[in-house]
């Protein structure tokens, strides 16, 4: 059997390949529902996006960010690709859990605070309870523990925006934390 580290690297490669493939499959199933006028809370423009391929019956997302959508403009492909990324991330979670279950590791899910305000993106789920539909301002990661002092990171938020890095040692990740950046989205987030 391969060493645990090699198994984790292979799992990361499989996840990366699967994420991109699955995202392409759901791209055409994501539709733009409506555009709302600017608001003080949500920004210059609000778009409701629905992904037909959702695991839930009705999956509506609100996208509001001047970085993605400058005032009074929007790129339909960019919005639809964002919806496909979200849907692919759900698939990614399921696959990741199945892959890690076959490797002798323990793993936990946690939030990774984004230190730099300029990298925060307002992505709001409409089905959250009233009063709790605030932007997601943290980085979601899964930390895999191989031993007492040996941990690795699967970066799921980076995967959502098409900037997935295969498994990274926790110490290295802490030193070289790659913030969720608009640059990564521009490079990978749309066709």
Secondary structure layout:
Layout: H1 4-27, E1 30-36, E2 46-51, E3 60-63, H2 76-101, E4 106-113, E5 123-125, E6 138-147, E7 150-155, H3 156-160, E8 168-169, H4 170-175, H5 182-188
Antiparallel strand pairs: 1-2, 2-3, 3-5, 4-6, 6-7, 7-8
What does this structure look like?
There is one protein chain. With 191 residues, the protein is of the alpha+beta class. The protein has one domain. The chain is built from five helices and eight strands, in the order αβββαββββαβαα. It has helices at residues 4-27, 76-101, 156-160, 170-175, 182-188, and strands at residues 30-36, 46-51, 60-63, 106-113, 123-125, 138-147, 150-155, 168-169. A four-stranded antiparallel β-sheet has the order 1-2-3-5. A four-stranded antiparallel β-sheet has the order 4-6-7-8. Strand 2 (46-51) and strand 3 form a beta hairpin. Helix 1 runs antiparallel to helix 2. The longest helix is centred in the middle third of the chain and has 26 residues, at 76-101. The protein is elongated. The model is unreliable at 54-60, 63-73, 113-138 and 179-191 (pLDDT under 50).
């Amino acid at each position: 059997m391969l060493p645990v580290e090699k198994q984790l690297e292979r799992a990361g490669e499989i996840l990366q390949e699967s994420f991109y493939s699955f995202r392409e499959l759901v791209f055409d199933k994501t539709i733009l529902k409506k555009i709302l006028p600017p608001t003080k809370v949500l920004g210059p423009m609000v778009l409701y996006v629905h992904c037909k391929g959702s695991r839930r019956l009705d999956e509506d997302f609100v996208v509001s960010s001047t970085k993605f959508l400058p005032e009074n403009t929007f790129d339909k492909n960019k919005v639809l690709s964002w919806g496909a990324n979200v849907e692919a991330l759900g698939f990614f979670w399921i696959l990741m859990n199945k892959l890690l279950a076959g490797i002798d590791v323990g793993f936990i899910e946690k939030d990774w605070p984004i230190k730099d305000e300029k990298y925060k993106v307002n992505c709001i789920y409409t089905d959250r309870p009233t009063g709790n539909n605030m932007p997601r301002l943290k980085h979601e990661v899964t930390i895999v523990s191989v031993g007492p002092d040996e941990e690795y990171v699967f970066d799921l938020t980076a995967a959502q925006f098409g900037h997935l890095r295969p498994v990274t040692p926790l110490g290295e990740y802490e030193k070289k934390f790659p913030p969720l950046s608009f640059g990564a989205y521009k490079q990978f987030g749309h066709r």
